[in-house]
């Protein structure tokens, strides 16, 4: 089952604009990670935010986490054509049984038009 | 290249045949994961190894699927008596031990069952 749900499912923007993707999840988490996937390729890790963090930056990426609303957002500033890809959030659920599986959403497909 | 390596990258097989995928994790990572991803979906967890011990298995992992990690290094995922519904990308990932660590994915192995 997929816990995370990304919104929107697809996003098309012009190069230079900012792109915002949202992720909602259902259960308590240890951390949340964002990944990028180019068509037909593996997943590339972008950023990890822990449950006790509210915001994190990495280059042109900004991630927020609101555990009270069980939601996260990924902002890509000054987008480039090379940012065209699918973006997934993945939750590392808190489990007393010590589960280590990430649970992914269906992803947001971002198209950046040159 | 010291990333997660998967082989083969693409496999076309006839229904009923057996297939085996290999994964070489990042050398210092003792955790290894297998995920499956179908078109338009996020990856779904299949199984997890800590060193050579298989500690978690998803209910998605039917008895036709078997994964091994002899000596705690590389891993193999075998699918017996393949069905068309097995067509997917099989992703391997690895991470260091400890909580909240980034999980690194390989490029995936595409399986097409005809």
* Secondary structural class of chain B: mainly beta
* SSE ordering of chain A: EEEEEEEEEEE
Shape of chain B: globular
Q: What is the count of helical runs of chain A? A: 0
Terminal Cα span of chain B: 33 Å
Rg of chain B is 13 Å
Of all protein chain pairs, which has the greatest interface, and how many residues does each chain bring to it? A-B, 26 and 25 residues
Radius of gyration of chain A: 14 Å
Can you describe what's shown?
The complex is a heterodimer of chains A (114) and B (114). With 114 residues, chain A is mostly beta strands. Chain A is built from no helices and eleven strands. In chain A, a hairpin with a 2-residue loop joins strand 6 and strand 7 (61-66). The radius of gyration of chain A is 14 Å and the shape is globular. Chain A starts with a strand and ends with a strand. The mean pLDDT of chain A is 90. Chain B is an all-beta fold and 114 residues long. Chain B has no helices and eleven strands. Chain B is globular, with a radius of gyration of 13 Å. The interface between A and B is medium-sized, with 26 and 25 residues.
Brief summary:
By secondary structure, chain A is mostly beta strands. Chain A is 0% helix and 56% strand.
Protein topology:
The complex is a heterodimer of chains A (about 110) and B (about 110).
Chain A: E1 5-7, E2 10-14, E3 19-24, E4 29-37, E5 43-50, E6 55-58, E7 61-66, E8 71-76, E9 85-93, E10 103-104, E11 108-113
Chain B: E1 5-7, E2 10-13, E3 19-24, E4 31-37, E5 44-50, E6 53-57, E7 65-68, E8 75-79, E9 88-95, E10 104-105, E11 109-113
Parallel strand pairs in B: 2-11
Antiparallel strand pairs in B: 1-3, 3-8, 4-5, 4-9, 5-6, 7-8, 9-10, 9-11
């Amino acid at each position: 089952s997929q816990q995370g749900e990304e919104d929107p499912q697809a996003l098309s923007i012009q190069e230079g604009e900012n792109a915002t993707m949202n992720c909602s999840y259902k259960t308590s988490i240890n951390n949340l990670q964002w990944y990028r996937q180019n068509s037909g390729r593996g997943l590339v890790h972008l950023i990890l935010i822990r449950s006790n963090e509210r915001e994190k930056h990495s280059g042109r990426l900004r991630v927020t986490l609101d555990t009270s609303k069980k939601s996260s957002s990924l902002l890509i500033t000054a987008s480039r054509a090379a940012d065209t890809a699918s973006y997934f959030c993945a939750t590392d659920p808190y489990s007393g049984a010590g589960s280590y599986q990430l649970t992914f959403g269906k992803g947001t497909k971002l198209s950046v038009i040159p | 290249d010291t990333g997660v390596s998967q082989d083969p990258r693409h496999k076309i097989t006839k229904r009923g045949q057996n297939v085996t995928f290999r994964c070489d994790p990042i050398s210092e990572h003792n955790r290894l994961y297998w995920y499956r991803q179908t078109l338009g979906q996020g990856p779904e967890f299949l199984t997890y190894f800590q060193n050579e011990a298989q500690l978690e298995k998803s209910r998605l992992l039917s008895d036709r699927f078997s994964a091994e990690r002899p000596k705690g290094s590389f891993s193999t995922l075998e699918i017996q008596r393949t069905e068309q519904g097995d067509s997917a990308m099989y992703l391997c990932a690895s991470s260091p031990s400890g909580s909240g660590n980034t999980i690194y994915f390989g490029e995936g192995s595409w399986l097409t069952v005809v």
